[in-house]
Design brief:
Strand content: under 5%
Distance between the termini: 75 Å
Number of strands: 0
Order of helices and strands: HHHHHHHHH
Helix content: over 70%
Structural class: mainly alpha
Number of helices: 9
Radius of gyration: 20 Å
Number of domains: 1
């Protein structure tokens, strides 16, 4: 009887591990695909003066892109339990492409070499943080709450910085931004475990939402690091 119980527990543990591994493969696969779409879209837009002018010269287009991005994030987050996987996938691809459009101007501001170097550094940093968040046994819910409060403060400081141009304030915002999204990367990586067990490990909208969370962490970490590492073309 004891032998049967041990075998059952072992088999159950194995199924749980397989479920988690399958879910994580899906999440990181979608995240990598989203980054590839963003990079390709950004490169295509940056190489087209006509498209750049159409976006930069029309405030309606710019705000439409921004509102569309916010709308997609809210839709995916609010309807994670009701969206069909195909719909969630389409929304994620659309968001990644829209982000590529808005980030295409970075290639006009910073040199391609510094953008690539920053991407590599951001990728290595993100990978180490996500790995720690996945394997650590420490409960990181407190870190998540602290990082969320930091994110709120960061948004408010960014709004203030938009109206009050100060190099010191911009430096502080950049430093805080790096730490906030580094912390969110660790927290979100751990949170994926709960998502994996909740959705059964298969392909679902939860996979896309998990990929979106990590995608946003990486993009923002990259952008704040670029403030330090980016070499401007007019320097």
């Amino acid at each position: 009887m004891a032998e049967y119980s041990n075998q059952s527990i072992g088999a159950y543990g194995l199924r749980e591990d397989e479920r988690l591994a399958g879910f994580l493969r899906g999440v990181y696969g979608w995240m990598a695909g989203g980054l590839a779409i963003t990079a390709l879209t950004g490169r295509m837009i940056a190489g087209s003066p006509t498209m750049l002018q159409a976006i930069a010269g029309n405030q309606f287009v710019f705000w439409a892109l921004f509102i569309a991005q916010i709308g997609i994030v809210l839709t995916l987050s609010a309807r994670v339990n009701t969206l069909a996987p195909s719909t969630a996938s389409l929304l994620f691809v659309a968001y990644a492409a829209l982000t590529g459009v808005t980030l295409s101007f970075l290639l006009l501001i910073y040199t391609g070499e510094s953008v690539f170097a920053t991407f590599v550094v951001a990728g290595g940093t993100f990978g180490a943080l996500a790995f720690y968040g996945t394997v650590t046994r420490r409960q990181l819910s407190g870190l998540g709450q602290m990082m969320f409060m930091g994110l709120v403060g960061l948004v408010l400081a960014t709004i203030v910085g938009f109206f009050w141009q100060s190099d010191a304030l911009q430096f502080v915002i950049s430093v805080v931004g790096v730490f906030v999204f580094a912390g969110l990367t660790v927290y979100d990586a751990q949170r994926l475990k709960s998502l994996a067990y909740a959705n059964g490990g298969g392909t679902s909208a939860s996979t896309i939402v998990g990929a979106l969370a990590l995608y946003l962490d990486f993009i923002n970490l990259f952008l704040f690091l670029l403030r330090f590492m980016g070499a401007r073309r007019n320097d």
